[in-house]
Amino acid sequence: MEIVRRAAPLTEKMDPRRDLPYGIPVANRPGFVTSPYAPTQGVVDVRGIPAGTQVKDPFSGKTFLIP
Predict the structure, then answer these.
(1) By CB atoms within 10 Å of each CB, which of 18, 42, 53, 55 scores lowest?
(2) How many Cβ atoms from other residues are within 10 Å of residue 13's Cβ?
(3) How far is C-alpha 12 from the chain's CA centre?
(4) Is pTM beyond 0.90 here?
């Protein structure tokens, strides 16, 4: 069974960081990405979160950007 976890958007008041890696889109599954930090752990549900938003990776706790 595939593990799916929901990403949490960050609500920082500072300028968004652009030096962060992007999540990797999952083929044939719009709204889902693979974490750039934990690519073998499962998929991350980012449906409804705009592209370019910083999110907290539910697998590693690190921050990445939505493609």
Answers:
(1) 18
(2) 4
(3) 16
(4) no
